[in-house]
Structure formats: C-alpha cells, structure tokens
Design brief:
Chain lengths: 484, 448
C-alpha cells in the first residue's frame, strides 16, 4: 500500500475523531509491558439489495465503525473495544484490556514511537465498490438475474437474487510502532431459484464475487452464467434418485469441492489448536499425512480473490503458505500470538471478523495444486462410486479429526461412466487420513467462484477454496439407499 | 449494567426511538419501525489454569426499516451519535426510493399491537468482576482436568455474562422495551485412552438469566469430563437401517427443521417440503407442540414480536396435525392469513413428552443408535432430504454398548416426523425449545 492509501485510511478513521498518530503514544502508555498489543481501527460500509417475485423488495445500508484494543502478556489476552473512535473511548478500552496485566507477569517495556507506514503490494483496487454503480444500475443487475433465470427454463417458479458489497478501511497500530493500513472492497451476488415440474419442487443457488466493485457483475455475462447455473442445478436435482449409503470410492470435482481441504485439514492446521495441542494434527509436522503428489497451500496473495488480503488483521503481509508438500505435513497457519509462543513466524493468517472480535489464525484461500491426470480418466477408472461436483457447507471436530461436507450436486459412477444424478448427501471422513486415500489427482485445478464464508468461534470471515478433480478410495456417503 | 444504568439506558433508548421515527417521517417515510439495543458484558476463557482471554463487550445498534407507501428501505448502524442516526435514516429513505412496489409490505395492523405488558423477569444482571470470573472458570476446568487421568488436555473453560436492553418501536405509537440478561459457564476437555493416539473432545454448559441458577463450576467440569471419556474408543458401525434416539440436545434440531418448514417465508416462497401443511397430519397422533411466549424467565419470552404484535399462547401441532404456520405480518399477508406474532422467530416451544424416561426409551428402542452429536447441515428444506454427520452410542438390549463415530444418519424429514415413536421426559431446560429425547425408527445409518 502506498502512502496515499495510508492517508486515505487516516482521514477516514482518525481525523473525524480529531486523532493524530502521535496521540496513540498516550494510548500505548496504558499497554506497557505487553508482549504484543495493538489497536485495530475499522470502518465498514455495507450495502445490499434483494429481489424476489420479480420485485426489488428491500435494500439495506449499514455503517459500522470502531476500535479494538488488545494486550497480550505471555499466553494471556486482554481485550476491549468501542464503537466510538475517540481519545476517551480508546483510553477506556486500553485500560480495560490492560486488566490482563493484573495477572502479574511482566514483559518488555519501551516507549512507543510510530514507524513509517509500510509500502506493500496491492492485490485489489481500493475504490469504493458500492460507488462503482448507481442504484438504478444495481437494480438492473437483479432484474437481469430474474429475467435470465426465468428464461432459462419454463419450470422456474421463483427467483431470489441478492447483491451485497462491503467497503472496509482498516488501520492497525501495534506496540512496536508499526502502522499498517488496508482498504478492502468485497462484493458478491447470489441467485436462488425454485423449479417445479410434474408436482416436484427443487431449489438451488449459485453466485460469485471477490474483491471488486459491483461492476464486476456487468462483465463477461456473469449474471447470465449464475442464473443459468442455478437453474441447471435445480433441474438436475429434480431428477435425482436416492444416494447410496456407506463407504465408497468418491470422485470430487474441481473448484468448490475444495471445501474438503478446508474442513479435513485446514482447520486442524490453524496455529491456535496446535499450540494448545487440541488438534488431531498437533505435533505431526514432518509426518506423511497425504498421498504422494498431494500439495496443499493457503494463499492470501491471489489477486482479487475473496479470501485474499494485502495484510492480515495484525498488519502482517499475507503469504502463500505450504501446508502439505508431496504428502508431508509442512507447517501451520499462524497469527502473531501463536507464532510467538510456538517459536515460529506469523504466516499472515491473523484474521478477525471486526474490531469487536479478537484475531486468531484463519484460512485465506486454501487449495490443492494440480496433478497430472485427465479428469475423464479419473472417472473412467471407477467401477462403482460417487461423482460429487457441488457442495454446500461443511464442519469439522478438530480434536477427533472427523469432518463432514455436504454435496448439493452428485452423480452415480457406474462402470466408469457418470450416470444418474443422486440426491445431496453428507460425506464424512477422518481429516488426518482422508488425504492418504487420494489415489488420483486431476490436472484441472480450479478455485471457487467467491462466495465462501468460514465460521470459527463465532466469527465469520470470507474465504476461498479450490482443488483439481480428486479420486478418494473410500469415503462414507450418507445416502439412504442400500448399496447393491 | 446495574439498575441505575438500566433506567438511564431505558430513557435514552426510548427518546432515541422517538427521534428516529420522527426523523424518518421528516425524510419522507409514511411509516417506520425499528429495533434498538444496548448492552454490555464480560467473558473469560481459561486454558490449563491460564487466562486465555479476558474480553469486555459493549454493544449497541439500531436497525431501521422505513416505508414510503408500499416501498421499503432499511439501514443499520452501530454508531448512535446524532450525525450517524441522521445518516442512517437518510440511507433507509433513499433505498425506499429505489425498491419496487410490494403490496404486502408495511407495518402490522395497528389493532394487533401489544398492550399491557407485565414483568417477565428476564433481567438479572451479575456484577461479575474479572477476578471472580477467572476463579469460577478455573474451578470448572480443574474439576474436569482432575476427574480422570485420561483427561489429557483442556479445550477451555469459559464464563460469560451479558445484560442489556432491546427496544422495538414503530409509527403506530408502539414501543416495547425488554431488559434481559444471560449468563453462561461452559467447559470442554480432551481425553485419550492409554496407548492410543486418537483424541476425543466434548463439552457441557450451564446457562441462565439468573446467575444464582447456574449449575456449580464443579458440576459443569465433571459432566464435561464424563461426556468426553464416554466417547473414547469410538468406532464406525456397518451401514444399516436403524432406529435412532436423539438426545434432548440433538432433538431440538428436529423441532427446528419442522418450524422452518412451516415458517411463513418458506410457505409463500414455496421452498418447503411441508407446503400447505396447515390442517395436515404431519406427525403421529400423540405429538403436541405448543408456544408459550410469557413464561417467567423463559429464554424466548416476550410480550411482542418484531412487528410489535402481541404474542399469545398457542398450539402449533395438536394430535399430530399442524394448526397454523409460524408467521410475521409480512408472510401472513403473502399467504392471506393472520399473523401468529412470530416475526423474528418463535417464543418458547414445548414438545409434549409421551412420558418415558431416558432409560425407558433405550429399552423401547432395544437395538439402535443413540445420537449425541450432529455435524454439518445436509438438509434440503424443499424436499425434506436429510443427511448429517453423527456421533453417539450403539445400543443393544436397551443398553449402551460402545461409542460410535464417523457415521451419517439419513432419511426424509417428512418420513422422520411420521416415524417418531416416543418423546422422553428428560427435557433439556437450557433452551427456548424444550423437548426430551426423540425416538425415530427407520433411518439409514451409513458407516463402513
């Protein structure tokens, strides 16, 4: 980020409160003795519009802003926040956060002095995404979604379309005097359709987005693509038969099925769980946890991706961190606190939902690198199994390692051919060994379309996932049909 | 928030509500409604006798919806300064200029607004210092960690206390203020059997509006240790059709799938497998589900819904038959029905028991799966198809045999509702939805 962006953030967050960078010295005076302390200033402008029944039913605009003050001593964190950015509110928050110091430990004491703002990469444009279009143009986008979906099939009964955008300004000052700022745009569009045919109804949704302005959706026929995809998915599911139940060979499609990686191994490799020894992956760096050829990274540096950040919420530049390399566990995703306690460096994965939440290690864009196999040959190699290409959410118990993810579009594979669509089913497996069952890796790496949200300890952050087509020998499929 | 602060906040939020509604009219709204809240709290998390986190919470917010004739606009803000309020009102009014004409939109009928409101006894703030919070959570964790040698780690003991005020107001002149408090203590620990590598985690919690009513830290810690230990050496079972007993904590999810399926929104959008189910027999004869919004100290108690409409005791299911949907005024208008005062959700649901204890339900099941954990959200609300990850215990001869993990349970909710055999009297009181264990036959369990 160049200094002009820093000034823009300063103007947005500090100037209205009459605050200067030099005032922060007085705030940090309350946080002396911290191993780590930071002030996280944030303003967040959000706008959304929704269409249903062919009518623009509602729109919402919101402004949230505030500052979070954190003080860390050893393993202990004190935290307070205020939705008012002012010298008095900051002082009160700093005093409250410093309550953690009563535990009696001492850390380094030094006078606070601001360093020059860091210059850094810009992975996304910093213009206001909400201002990229007029209200009339935003509404036109939703009307287009409605029209495209309805014209895609006579069976479409209902179209629900939403667009939402966020424009965020962030300023992070830490006890070392580092000052970092970021301006983050984020937009998404979702289209859900209900179809009805021969008395049967189905619904499906799709969407996309990233760190763009709203005008992203006027490009490359995106709205039509989302609308047609939602209709296609719903129609496929109208004809779906019951999914088979039990352990079977599963071929996962490329792109969004990468939610497998997010649940099965991603969360288990977050630094906090490993520092505390509560993850099924704790103490396993250097061990073989996946088949040869499996390389998984968490990459916050991809341009314009939903999960990407110039800096994380502690001011650390994001990285491409290798989690698994050729089947071997390489390392964890770290924020500052956990990295320090584990004798490592932050990997730029310290993220928080807002100023009112504490940062913790979180994923950005998590994906598996491409292999060499032709996806068609992967499918052809399966006698009987499941081909799952679209997924809803997932969940993991990081301690036992058990994870689930739910297919929303899947087909039977019979004698090497994709045949009938089957109803959505939940797949369950064990994180530390599921990737050892990967027997073929496609050459078709794809990332998701940019609508992923990850929840952890009550905090939601935008993320991305991706993978090539994968063959997994033996995953439990939660269908209702006994296998023949 | 003590009593004086409460009075002050009450007066401030009432005045603010009036200001916001007046401003809305000034900027062209024909009607407006809002919700406002302000509260504060403290939470502490302990990990291995160390303070992991000490957090002070202070939240406030305004959510405003304005109507310009049949056009609607909304805006929210966390900043309640004069300038931010004005900006928020303007933003909502601006949006209403662009939204389409919706004949169903607008405030609820003025005659339906809640009138006399008594004290539901929801507000019992706790003057909890950081020191005593740390002490309580530490004692809780200690009780768990010292329970058994196989408890090898802690996933944290947490205590939190929150109290605040929420306001619903609209331009019918309705204003409803609800002070409330909530206190929680929870503990999660990790167990490992000797000479094995697999770890298991489970947790227990206690929650109440009155801190005196919380279970003791020792009880919460011991219970979390017991549950965690019981999961050691879990294994998969063979894929098979089985009867499933949902523990009371899991049984609540069955009720919530039902209430979603008869919500006004899912009915008018036709996104439910129970479309048009009013008057239909969806459950066996013995099922009765009812709503009691005015329970003293209830977790879901309120005299009015988000529309300001007076809440009333009502039956939702009687003799297995759906009596009415779960609607606010908007979805009721869409459906041509009368609102059931459920804008924003339900208020204290009870599923009547068929009288059996938990042990009697195990005997009645004889052989099958006791489910104590569900993960993932594999539910299709339009078709009722249900497939979720699960963990629990295998039961034979009415007795628990061994822990089970890495399995899924699947079926269709329509069938599952009809296949309920019994509802236990082992009610879990920690929620606005009260039910005992639910026994359902004919589900598909997928494992090996």
């Amino acid at each position: 980020m160049n200094p002009s962006h820093f000034q823009q953030v300063e103007q947005q967050l500090l100037e209205p409160a009459g605050l200067n960078i030099s005032d922060l010295e007085k705030i940090f005076a309350h946080l002396k003795g911290a191993d780590l302390a930071d002030l996280y200033f944030q303003s967040n402008r959000f706008e959304s519009w929704g269409l249903e029944d062919g009518i623009i039913k509602n729109g919402t605009y919101s402004i949230e802003q505030g500052v979070g003050v954190r003080m860390v001593i050893g393993e202990q964190t004190g935290f307070s926040y205020s939705d008012e950015i002012s010298f008095d509110a900051l002082t009160a928050s700093a005093k409250a956060a410093a309550g953690i110091g009563k535990a009696g430990q001492t850390g380094r004491i030094q006078a606070w002095q601001a360093k020059d703002a860091q210059k850094m990469k810009a992975l996304y444009q910093m213009d206001n995404p909400l201002a990229a279009m007029s209200e009339d143009e935003k509404i036109a986008l939703l009307n287009l979604a409605d029209k495209e979906a309805r014209s895609a099939s006579p069976h479409v009964q209902q179209v629900i379309a939403n667009i939402a955008g966020v424009y965020e300004h962030i300023l992070i000052a830490d006890n070392e005097g580092n000052l970092n700022a970021d301006i983050r745009p984020l937009v998404r569009m979702n289209i859900t359709v209900v179809v009805e045919k021969d008395g049967k109804r189905e619904s499906a949704g799709t969407g996309g987005g990233g760190r763009f302005g709203f005008n992203y959706f006027t490009q490359a026929d995106r709205v039509r693509e989302y609308a047609q995809e939602a209709v296609r998915l719903a129609l496929v599911n109208l004809d779906a038969v019951a999914a088979p139940a039990g352990s079977q060979t599963v071929v996962l499609g490329s792109g969004w099925p990468g939610v497998l990686l997010h649940e099965a191994i991603g969360h288990g490799l977050e630094g906090d769980f490993n520092r505390k020894g509560t993850s099924a992956f704790s103490g396993r760096v250097g061990e073989k946890v996946a088949s040869n050829g499996v390389t998984v990274v968490d990459d916050g540096t991809l341009e314009n991706r939903r999960g990407s950040l110039n800096i994380d919420d502690e001011g650390t530049p994001t990285n491409c961190t290798t989690l698994i390399e050729d089947g071997v566990l390489k390392g964890y995703m770290q924020d500052k606190l956990n990295a320090r306690l584990m004798g490592e460096q932050s990997t730029g994965n310290g993220r928080r939902e807002s100023y009112a939440h504490l940062p913790m290690p979180r994923m950005t864009n998590t994906y598996m690198l491409a292999g060499k196999e032709d996806p068609q040959e992967i499918i052809a190699s399966v006698k009987n199994g499941l081909y799952a290409v679209n997924f809803g959410g997932g969940q993991v118990d990081i301690t036992s390692g058990k994870f689930v993810f739910s297919a929303s579009e899947a087909y039977l594979i019979e004698n090497g051919k994709v045949t009938r669509p089957v109803k959505g089913a939940t797949l369950i497996g064990n994180g530390p060994d599921v990737l050892t069952k990967v027997s073929m890796i496609g050459n078709d790496l794809a990332l998701d379309k940019g609508v992923g949200v990850c929840g952890k300890a009550g905090q939601s952050v935008p993320v991305g996932v991706g993978q090539p087509t994968l063959k997994i020998d033996g995953l439990t499929v939660g269908g209702t049909e006994a296998q023949s | 928030m003590n009593l004086n602060e409460l009075k002050k906040t009450d007066a401030e939020l009432r005045a603010l509500s009036e200001t916001v509604l007046k401003l809305s009219k000034k900027y062209g709204a024909s009607d407006a409604e809002l919700s406002l809240n302000r509260g504060s709290g403290l939470s502490v998390e302990i990990h291995q006798e160390n303070i992991d986190k000490l957090e002070y919470h202070r939240d406030q917010g305004l959510s405003l919806t304005v109507y310009m004739g049949q056009h609607q606009g909304s805006a929210t803000t966390g900043d309640l300064s004069t300038q931010a309020i004005e900006d928020t009102v303007k933003a909502a009014c601006n949006i209403a200029k662009f939204t389409g004409e919706d004949k169903y939109t607008g405030l609820a009928n003025a005659q339906l607004m809640a009138g006399d409101m008594g004290d539901l006894d929801l507000y019992h703030p706790w003057d909890l210092s950081a020191e005593s919070a740390i002490q309580i959570a530490t004692a809780c964790e200690k009780a768990a960690m010292s329970y058994d040698d196989r408890i090898i780690n802690s996933d944290g003991a947490s205590i939190s206390s929150y109290s605040g005020l929420s306001v619903i107001a609209n331009t019918h002149g309705f204003i409803g203020v609800t002070p409330s408090s909530r206190h929680n203590l929870s503990c999660s620990v990790i167990a490992q059997a000797p000479n094995t590598t697999a770890m298991q985690r489970d947790y227990w919690y206690t929650t109440s509006r009155q801190h005196e009513a919380l279970d003791s830290p020792e009880h919460v810690g011991e219970k979390s240790a017991e549950l965690t230990l019981s999961r050691l050496n879990g294994r998969q079972i063979n894929t098979q059709q089985a009867t499933v007993l949902y523990s009371p904590e899991m049984a609540r999810s069955i009720i919530s799938h039902f209430t979603s399926s008869i919500s006004g929104g899912s009915q008018y959008r036709k996104t439910t497998f129970l479309l048009g189910a009013k008057g239909e027999k969806v459950f066996p004869d013995f099922i009765r589900l009812h709503e009691q919004p005015h329970l003293i100290s209830g977790f879901g108690s309120c005299y009015f819904d988000r529309d300001g409409v007076a809440t009333v005791d009502r039956d939702i299911v009687v003799d297995g038959v759906v009596q009415d949907y779960i609607m606010g005024s908007y979805s009721a208008r869409q459906l041509g029905l009368k609102t059931t005062a459920n804008s924003g959700g339900t208020h204290n649901l009870t599923l009547d028991s068929t009288g059996q204890t938990f042990d009697e339900l195990l005997k009645l099941m004889d052989t099958g799966l006791l489910v104590t954990e569900l993960i993932g959200s594999g539910i299709n609300g339009v078709t009722g198809d249900y497939s979720r990850g699960a963990a629990g215990f295998w039961v034979e001869n009415g007795e628990i045999q061994f822990p089970v993990e890495e399995i899924t349970i699947a079926g269709n909710l329509k069938d599952m509702f009809q296949n309920i055999i019994a509802v236990g009297n082992d009610v879990d009181p920690r929620s606005a939805t009260q039910t005992g264990s639910i026994l359902i036959e004919g589900m598909m369990v997928a494992g090996e």
